[in-house]
Amino acid sequence: MDEPDGDGGGGVDDRRLEVDGEERNVYGDPLEPCGRDPETGVLRDGECHAMPARDPGRHEVCAVLTERFLEFSATMGNELREPRPDLQFPGLSPGDRWCVCLPRWVEAVEGRAAPPVVLAATNESVLDAVDLETLEAHAHDAED
User: In DSSP terms, which residues pair with 63 in a beta bridge?
Assistant: First the structure.
């Protein structure tokens, strides 16, 4: 599910941190914000944090949503266009930047429906499941 399913972590902040205390993007640089309108991330602070205990869905890929991906997600049982106020979820539209679930993004790659990725805002933790070459092949190259 690409929206949070509750706290699940008892308020424990289990982000994977580097020595300097900052999470990193896929290039090893400080993680940049993904989206502020709508506010994304498991903490709704705009960043794609790696928080395994709190976020088992792994909302770590910063994507620029497309209609094709939104349709794909809906066919997989996760309708992202509909607001869910109980989950602080605004409903999404093409062009929104959103921290999507790593497993769903991988499924979308296989289904030829993957949205472009903002590499500077995608958490380095995704590299345990997706190689950098695949991410770069789906890079969002527009300056926003």
Answer: 98, 117
